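Hi U.,

Before I forget, here's the chain from the pilot set. I'm dumping it here mostly so it's searchable later in email.
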Amino acid sequence: MSETYVVVTSEVKELQDRMAALVASEHYEEACLVRDSLAMMEFRKRLLEIQAKPRIMYRVGDVIVHRRYGYRGVVYGHDPECSAPSSWQDAMKVDLLTHGRSQPFYHVLVDTRDRAGGVSTYVAQENLVAQSDASPVVHPWIPKFFVGFQDGTYVPGKKLRQVYPNDW
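Structure:
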């Protein structure tokens, strides 16, 4: 998530803890003020979540093609913006992309028929295209993350469904 989201989430937790302490010590008037601040901060947090969600174009299990390099793969994770270390972003020239580091980035298992070695890549959304008439991807890690392939997409296992509940 973005740095702003992390800060807001931290502030929500602090306000929750403060309100609980005030109620426990029977300082109800002050607890009401904190409750009002908490409601506003929770609203702000929810707005940030809503703003991030529509930007995600591909779901876990979607089969994609890299726009530039042409390899196929399956999405097994995503971030609302680039979360790779700055050194990686600099080496990959992320800031030269049309939408830079603020666009969603995807963890992709690359089809071994397109790139040997069972590699995983981290790819900007603008570099991906949905695979029409998707067929299964070949990768040794697929059984680790997915439990099947149905209607052109992979069915995620329990762990991926827990990590990305909004994708289902």
